[in-house]
Amino acid sequence: xxxxxxxxxxxxxxxxxxxxxxxxxxxxxxxxxxxxxxxxxxxxxxxxxxxxxxxxxxxxxxxxxxxxxxxxxxxxxxxxxxxxxxxxxxxxxxxxxxxxxxxxxxxxxxxxxxxxxxxxxxxxxxxxxxxxxxxxxxxxxxxxxxxxxxxxxxxxxxxxxxxxxxxxxxxxxxxxxxxxxxxxxxxxxxxxxxxxxxxxxxxxxxxxxxxxxxxxxxxxxxxxxxxxxxxxxxxxxxxxxxxxxxxxxxxxx
Length: 253
What we know:
The protein is of the alpha/beta class. The protein has one domain (2-250): Rossmann fold (3-Layer(aba) Sandwich). It has 7 helices and 10 strands. The chain has helices at 9-31, 45-51, 81-88, 109-120, 160-168, 187-191, 206-214, and strands at residues 2-5, 34-38, 62-66, 68-70, 98-100, 127-130, 153-157, 181-185, 195-200, 232-236. The strands form 2 sheets. Strands 1-10-9-6-2-3-5 form a 7-stranded parallel sheet, covered by helices on one side. It has a 3-stranded antiparallel sheet with strand order 4-8-7. The two termini are 18 Å apart. The relative contact order is 0.19.
């Protein structure tokens, strides 16, 4: 895992976007098309803002899959991840080839997941943009995460720490309003991505970052599995890196 510590959230987002954009351009040069996975949450604000401004990307040849979504939440809800991505990503890229959302409020959720899995299974994913949760979750794979499930998308139950993070970030008016289930990309599917770009700011993520980087690989700390990925970049700001044993070695020069 490559780790860099940037001075603030804007620099962090810009560096992560640049890294991901380089991988997109490389895929377009090599294959004439590119598939990416995009994430949501407060950690991705600056990165997505920088990514849509990256030059020399033929977005018409890019397909973007959605990392996760709450079960039962309509797109009109302020916390909907589809709404988030439409506003911050899709609407700013009018030439985007295709955006594949996760419709967590589908009338037939099993059929929706079957459809998504059929689209993604066996497809080469060039770049996955993601973050790390306060409980070290990866996508909505809360601890203890299932490292063995093979389906691209699965339905998961959200633990209390994850739900409290969503409340703390201001997406919901109360804890009881936070859904307790979500559709999430599985750990194995995320690991199939050729390149993974992690954007992780804020002091509240520091313990999770330490576990992911310096702890043992364990389902109890889902993001720790990224230690086993051959091409993963982790971008932090100083508060997120505060609990690392040797943060100075990772500071951008």
